[in-house]
Write a structure and sequence with these properties.
- The structure holds two protein chains of two kinds.
- Chain A is mostly helical.
- Chain A has one domain: Up-down Bundle (Ferritin), CATH 1.20.1260.10.
- Chain A is built from eleven helices and no strands.
- Chain A is globular and about 55 Å long.
- By secondary structure, chain B is mainly alpha-helical.
- Chain B has a two-stranded antiparallel sheet.
- In chain B, strand 1 and strand 2 (271-272) form a beta hairpin.
- The mean pLDDT of chain B is 94.
- Classes of the chains: A mainly alpha, B mainly alpha.
Chain lengths: 258, 330
């Protein structure tokens, strides 16, 4: 017997918080898929570490969303009892791990953004979000450093690693635009100083990314067409499979405590 | 996670080395001194320890797989984070132990190759499958519990780097064990379905866990040398008995039944268990356990598919070194 998904009152602040929580959970889940299978033990440790940071961020953000919503939902209900159309994460973060280059490029693109985003959010007029930002910024700064180093190693390593890293950049580039979008529901939060305008972060993001990519002897694609939809629950086909695995226990044993 | 009592020592290939040095070495052991990497040691002592420590390291790394099997399906975010952190700890133990083995002159690469080629052993327990969430609880409670029984005396092992590694590893294992027991407690207090899941997991893991302590004393090889060198301080059967005595009341508290109808408490208070199926143990060691092939295949896949990444890191490091040298020459 399956259990029905919960309903969520997506007021602007709840929706906003859920979107960031979903980002952290989905990317953290993807990183956790590597555990025990990484190219070297040191990287097994590092990938798990970043995954744990992101899971921690997700839990704080879900708990805050639950508090703001005030309808008896909690971190686990948000994570385990929403269907694919209710998930609000960026398309970039649900993309499969692929090879190590694809995982690193995905993490690099996101960390370069998250580092700027959380640093800006430390000034949020919402005290809880500002506190979460202060902790998350330290974590994303490390993620950015770690992934930047790998970008350079892979790009400027061997012919094969260069080709794989370039292919990963070309494949994932179209998912980066979504990070800088804000819809009508976020506009009010930006005006109230609760949220930052992500679009304003793009020039600095592009500079960080371009510098590392350049040092790595790699190139950014010329194609500027960007995919959209994750923030509204229009996902790639990959997310449904991820969720069916993530949610299998809660869906199979409705209401059980673990 | 755990070292298995596969650790036979190498008395047979021991050459007669400098008799005076050997006597001085044994005198230091007898005086409970720690042997350190740069100290003289008999070749057989080195070989025995290299094998035991590297088997322990392999066990940590292969042991990531059965538990890793549940990270993506953990039933709550709290459990998911705890399990990921736990499996990460095992990886850290593996790294730490490979480093301890390297102090004896073996490289991590050559040790890992021995494992991947099937020549080196790892703990037999990881050749059993994790079928339900309750298996994650049982592994923490019993598999880590058995590991702790083995590791406590190893904290006083005569070889310094191994003894120190065991102190650090043991602290984390104790935490894992409590976590595992807490999973079991939650299941035992849960629905009928959850209780049945917990009992089923105990039924499947109980006997393989008892086998973790290694063959019975009357057939255990060369224990005397390891004992003389103070690598091993208790026999397999002694440790197994300690474990059973500690575990029975824990199972009772959970309201679970140990799958051994013949088990009874003797006059001294020890729990006497029925005879263990050592044929199963031999089969699993010989490669015929339910997951031997899967475990090795998974490790080989990670190793092979990661080769280009390791090569890239090395190529880049060399390029960088050359550039720095060239710069310095300018």
């Amino acid at each position: 017997m399956a259990i029905a998904s919960i309903s969520v009152s997506e007021t602007p602040l709840v929706l906003y918080t859920l979107r960031r929580a979903d980002d952290a959970l989905i990317l953290g889940h993807r990183l956790s898929e590597w555990c025990g299978h990484a190219p070297m033990l040191e990287e097994d440790m590092a990938l798990a570490n970043m995954g744990l940071d992101l899971l921690g961020q997700a839990r704080e953000l879900y708990s805050y969303a639950a508090k703001v919503e005030g309808r008896g939902n909690d971190e686990d209900k948000f994570a385990y009892l929403r269907d694919v159309r209710q998930y609000r994460n960026l398309l970039l973060l649900e993309q499969p791990n692929g090879d190590f280059a694809q995982t690193m490029v995905r993490q690099f693109f996101y960390s370069a953004y998250a580092d700027l985003y959380w640093r800006a959010m430390m000034k949020s007029s919402d005290a809880t979000l500002a506190a979460i930002a202060a902790k998350s910024e330290k974590e994303s700064a490390y993620h950015l450093r770690h992934t930047s180093e790998w970008m350079v190693r892979l790009g400027d390593g061997t012919e094969e690693s260069h080709a794989r890293a370039q292919a990963a950049i070309d494949h994932l580039w179209a998912f980066t635009g979504e990070m800088f979008e804000a819809d009508a529901s976020e506009r009010g939060l930006i005006d109230a100083g609760i949220s930052v305008d992500s679009a304003s972060l793009r020039p600095q993001w592009l500079k960080t990314v371009a510098d590392v990519v350049d040092e790595a002897t790699l190139a950014l694609p010329k194609n500027d067409w960007m995919q959209q939809g994750g923030r509204d629950g229009r996902h790639s086909e990959h997310l449904g499979h991820l969720l069916s695995e993530l949610q299998s226990m809660q869906r199979t044993f409705p209401g059980a405590a673990w | 996670m755990y070292t298995q009592a596969l650790n036979t020592s190498d008395a047979d290939d021991r050459h007669v080395e400098d008799a005076a040095r050997a006597a001085a070495f044994q005198a230091r052991i007898d005086a409970e001194e720690r042997i350190e990497p740069n100290d003289w040691m008999p070749a057989a002592y080195r070989k025995t320890l290299t094998r035991q420590i590297s088997q322990h390291a392999h066990s940590e790394i292969v042991g990531m797989l059965p538990e890793g099997n549940w990270i993506t399906r953990a039933p709550s975010l709290r459990r998911k984070a705890a399990l990921l952190a736990k499996v990460q700890d095992e990886c850290g133990h593996g790294l730490y132990l490979y480093a301890a083995a390297e102090t004896l002159g073996a490289s991590r690469e050559e040790l890992v190759d021995l494992m991947l080629s099937g020549k080196a052993k790892y703990s037999s327990i990881f050749n059993y499958p994790t079928l339900t969430w309750a298996d994650i609880g049982v592994i923490g409670w019993l598999v880590d519990g058995a590991a702790i029984m083995n590791q406590i005396p190893l904290c006083r092992c005569s070889y310094g780097p191994y003894a120190r590694a065991m102190i650090r590893v043991g602290k984390e294992e104790s935490f894992h064990q409590r976590q595992g027991y807490e999973i079991m407690l939650t299941l035992a207090r849960g629905s009928e379905e959850q209780k049945a899941m917990a009992q089923d997991a105990l039924n499947r893991w109980w006997w393989p866990v008892l086998m973790m302590f290694g063959p019975p004393d009357q057939v255990s090889q060369h224990s005397d040398t390891s004992t003389k060198w103070k690598i091993k301080r208790f026999s397999n059967d002694e440790l197994r008995q300690k474990f059973v005595d500690a575990t029975v009341p824990q199972a009772q508290y959970l309201g679970l039944t140990i799958p051994d109808p013949g088990m009874k408490q003797n006059a001294e208070g020890h729990w006497e268990y029925s005879s263990i199926d050592w044929d199963e143990f031999k089969q699993v060691l010989a490669g015929n356990g339910p997951c031997n092939r899967d475990r090795l295949a998974a490790r080989r896949k990670a190793h092979d598919e990661g080769a280009w990444v390791r090569e890239a890191a090395q190529a880049y490091a060399e390029k960088r070194k050359h550039r720095q040298l060239a710069q310095a020459a300018e």
